[in-house]
DNA sequence: ACAGGAATGGCAACCGTTTGCCGCCCTCGA
DNA sequence: TCGAGGGCGGCAAACGGTTGCCATTCCTGT
């Protein structure tokens, strides 16, 4: 296609095509959006003319009558959290492939903003993917009743979701630490309204209990690198020789702080993160962490949503669970002494 | 506001308000969007009723007639490049504050996709902010003639822009290296169609020339961490003791590779990155780099765009230049021997 | 040869807002 | 007292599609 055409101010409407081909506007509309409703020859002529005139359908006009916008919102609590990289990538690819527009919304960690934005957007989107929503279960379920919705890393009855099986990953991490001789593991807690946070903590409790070991929990800490200092300092006050942090951001922040304070990782303390996000493999020391197929999660979420949008069906399976696994790097080692 | 209302399926239109208040729909419309056109008392009643019914104006209907969408597209070449964090943040805040919708588009490093997407979106957006566009000057200028546009980190005649003064930062970096005794500095080149890449290289050439020192250029390398290995290996083949990389992603990739190959940084080679992006302060060794006020750049870009949209004026200043400065960390040190 | 029905295209209403234009009423100055 | 003009509100026509319904044509089976 000639790139000059791309730039051309799109002023050609369905009526222009109608006039040019001699068909009625309604026929043109059908030829373009419901191909089986018109004769093949007709459709061909219309499509050809549309191309020739480089017709671009008007999204708004279409949305106004049909209600469909071919747009899906993806809500993340913080765009600048590298954890979302994969999710954004995944949803983006899948949506683009399906011809949908990808509307990325940063809710800035506020449930308030989540539901508010969504209500404003209601008419502009066909559905939404909510990653790590801060909404209450009730509110989330209510929303899901109004709007096709898929939640990521959040499990709520009545809401389709794709979750990362970090509990089993946390179990792996705990086994890893225990086998290295650690006898006291601390969990550095993330935001208290985070579903994943609870799931991880519970899994750690269970695994440690199986070995008859104590676990403690510190926090909650906001899920940012900044909180790492506070988390590290709190950790130092305990006798623990190993910890699992809510996510890599927190873990990396801790690494920095521990280094500042001259505490050897992993010689004195072993640190495990979660998510294997951007940076986990080049921080110092490199971080042992739970890898999650987050990009795949994005793709799956989109697939579920689109299936729902097209079939109108309430979805076969209610939720997909994706496996996670431990990646051992430099930040974990044998317990001291 | 009651959060339940947020969720409510928005089916109340301007006509409902008209009926409820006894005014005509046109009056309601004016009361809501052109307040000075109606009597204060009238407006008040209408606004009150709108609130009571929790009316949400229909974006599409509005866009259809008025042509304005209150949406601005922000195009980045790769959402998962942390360099864009600040930009996304900055544009987002400023747009949100102005009541605009932020449409983030990942062009996946393809100029083709840039112009294509933009033409598809033409009717859905009021303007666009193009960060590090891959488009040719001509195409970019053509686009700018069609659509209010602000370019970030790209200077083209006839296109408003905000650029980061990395040339002066590169000069600082070069002086820094030279004062440390380095006599041969290599530039690791980024994508060849990147404006910033050229600007940085030219600045390095100039500065080195002032000191009568030779400079070389290696590459081009794609601006990703992956390319770091190739870049590092190429660097090792030269006699250079210091290098400046197109960006931090590349620099961090190099750091990893140099470490793998047992080459000490900064003992044997000093490395300078550009952008001070997420990760530069916790990689190993921490990276000396050029800090750019990229978030501010985003805010400024939005301000320029909005000014243009509101006044319709062709903008007072054509481009804003933001200062950069060198942040010295661990990856640079005295030249060996 | 004819009723029934599928395939195909046109008509016109409608989606929710904006906006040009017109008309009413009130006020003010002459 | 009357005309001019400003303030304010209503009418109706867009905007660019979609879609329910109807008319026509052409098959098909009997």
Tell me the distance between the termini of chain A.
69 Å
Largest sheet, spatial ordering of strands of chain A:
2-1-3-4-5-11
| Structure classification of chain A | alpha/beta
Strand content of chain A is 15-25%
CATH topology name of the largest domain in chain A, in short, is Rossmann fold
CATH architecture of the largest domain in chain A: 3-Layer(aba) Sandwich
Total strands of chain A: 12
CATH C-level of the largest domain in chain A: Alpha Beta
H-E string of chain A: HHHHHEHEHEHEEHEHEHEHEEHEE
> Main β-sheet of chain A, in a few words?
6 strands, parallel
Unreliably modeled segments of chain A? 1-9
Helices and strands in order:
The structure is a homodimer of 337-residue chains.
Chain A: H1 3-7, H2 14-21, H3 25-33, H4 40-52, H5 59-66, E1 71-76, H6 84-97, E2 101-106, H7 111-121, E3 127-131, H8 137-146, E4 149-152, E5 160-164, H9 166-179, E6 185-188, H10 195-210, E7 215-218, H11 227-236, E8 242-245, H12 248-260, E9 270-275, E10 288-291, H13 294-311, E11 319-322, E12 325-327
Parallel strand pairs in A: 1-2, 1-3, 3-4, 4-5, 5-11, 6-7, 6-8, 8-9, 9-10
Antiparallel strand pairs in A: 10-12
Chain B binds a DNA duplex (30 and 30 nucleotides) through residues 13-15, 23-30, 33-34, 37-39, 42, 57-58, 60-67.
